[in-house]
Amino acid sequence: ELTRGIIRGLDEAAPDADWWNRVSAPYIGHTWLDVPWYWAEAFFYRRLLEATGYFRTGPLQGFDPFATTKALEWRPDAGPAAVERLLPALLVDPEERLEQLLHSCLWGNRTDLSYMIAAHLGATGAPDDERANLIVDHSRTVARLLLGHEDLRVGLVADNAGTELLMDLVLADFLLSNQVASQVEFHVKAHPFYVSDAMISDAADATDALIAAGGAAGKLGRRLDAHVA
Asked: Which residues contact 154 (CB under 8 A, 6 or more apart)?
């Protein structure tokens, strides 16, 4: 279909099917080369869920087709190892530590599993190396704003599972353990979207991976379990 056919709408009864068919109406019947890039990419990945039967009753209902790729990041020598390297390097001063954690979350985005070159960059756990490459950096202002309040409810919009989500969880632990926030709310995807987008199940897998890794990462994982409880 990508090379010789035309685009069709979704032909399944799924919770989002009506929405997809409505917003896709201007593009149905055209070739994939004739439509806007972002819509084409998003709809392509939605069609993958249709092809694998994610919403249909059957053996693959609810199965994340990207789970195997995500699982590579839960190995002790992958994402948890990056956390293990980061924790001892955190500074004592709360403002400096929070600023470090914000940069760690930003650095974690480089490990997006759909961005394959990230696999060759390695999990250095050294976000300071990236600061010189930032065009705008408001992390100090954000850190002071957060530390200037108590009992906050902080919302984190999660992007990718794996190392990036682990860095987000390190930040959440800091906010809760230091009473900067009384609640940290993660906004994740309801179902698989792109290759590595984070879902609720990925957050649980991330915590389990930290606990299984032991060491400082394992202690962090147990604190996260307690926060959830």
From this structure: 146, 172, 175, 180, 181, 183, 184, 185
* Confidence at 34, pLDDT banded by 50, 70, 90: very high
> Residue 171: CB partners within 8 Å, gap ≥ 6?
101, 102, 104, 105, 156
Buried b (16+ CB within 10 A) or exposed e, 72-97: ebbebebbbbbbbebbeeeeeeeeeb
* Token pair in block for residue 24: 């896709």
One-letter identity of residue 10: L
pTM: 0.88
Q: CA 168, CA 104: separation in Å to the nearest integer? A: 8
Residue-level pLDDT at 123: 44
pLDDT at 109: 78
